[in-house]
Amino acid sequence: MPCNCNKTPSPCCDNIFVSNTVTRSQRGPQGPTGPTGPTGPTGPSTGATGATGPTGPTGATGPIGATGPTGAQGPQGVQGIQGLTGIQGATGATGATGPTGATGPTGATGPTGATGATGPTGASVTPTFTIGTVLTGAPGTTATADITGTAPNFFLNLTIPQGVTGPTGATGVAGATGPTGATGPTGASGTTGTTGATGPTGPIGLTGATGPTGPTGDAGATGPTGPTGDTGATGPTGPTGDTGATGPTGPTGDTGATGPTGPTGATGPTGPTGPTGP
User: Fold this and answer.
1) Do residues 50 and 240 make contact, with C-beta atoms less than 8 angstroms apart?
2) Whether 277 contacts 90, CB under 8 Å
3) DSSP character at residue 213
4) Which of 85, 95, 152, 181 is the most buried (most CB within 10 A)?
5) Measured distance CA(226)–CA(229) in Å, rounded
6) Separation in Å, CA 233 to CA 21, 38, 40, 86, 213
7) Could you give the 3-state DSSP secondary structure of residue 151?
8) What is the tens place of the pLDDT at every residue in 84-112?
């Protein structure tokens, strides 16, 4: 049966021990509470960390799920409009003609000689023309032709300008997309690296001083309480036990099917072609 010092008569409350191990007596009024004794030194917080247990084996990788079907090919985008052809650059100005040289002096005309006898009529020779070099000139230039060689054999050399570039033809229809190849096998998982050593525990800061205890209110007719004894030093913390082995990793779940590919967006219009330089 627990004691109630306010209701239970002596000797129940003559000798009773409280948490601070001080014997209270039911004699006279209670005196003031004595000051709190100094706090004992703090012992080391944590013992040495035990070695980490070995890592358990990795579980087998589960099978990879089948690849989902490829979505339908989107519609071909609208062909952009043909850009405008740039304007032809202006022809450069013709250089100035150099000055004509001075005419030399005219010599005296000699006397006219006698008319010689008429010679025999020469044989008639028909000239032949062979195509020589044929070159391609720049677009917009003038075609040229010149004759070289010695009579009766002549060569006709030609320079023909290149024609202007024609408009770009329409883009052909895009071919169908080929089937998606099969997914390759998954490579084996690498081995788990070793666990690094645990770093040292930092120092524990000093414990601040305990503030004074406020005065206790009046109580019943209890005898004075003796002073509180000093608190003993805290003993060292025991070492931490070894960590148990890690259990095996469970199998990986199946991979879900891949969703269908969305349709391809329409191709934007082609911008106009810039002007051709000079």
Assistant:
1) yes
2) no
3) P
4) 85
5) 9
6) 17, 11, 5, 98, 22
7) coil
8) 554 565 666 677 776 776 665 666 677 78
Query: CA 223 to CA 25: how far, in whole Å?
Result: 5
- pLDDT, one tens digit per residue, over 140-179 is 999 999 999 999 999 999 999 998 888 888 888 888 888 8
Alpha-carbon distance 126 to 123, whole Å? Answer: 10
Euclidean distance between CA atoms 179 and 69, whole angstroms: 10
C-alpha span between 207 and 233 (Å, rounded): 13
Residue 16 has pLDDT above 50, yes or no: no
Distance CA(71)–CA(69), nearest Å, equals: 6
User: Strand ranges (DSSP E) for the chain?
Assistant: 16-17, 23-24, 128-137, 144-150, 153-161
Residue 148 makes CB contacts below 8 A (sequence gap 6+) with 132, 154, 155, 157
Hey, what long-range contacts does 147-151 have (CB within 8 A, 24 or more apart)? 151/125, 151/127
DSSP assignment of 22-47, as one string? Answer: -EE-SSS---PPPPPPPPPPP--S--
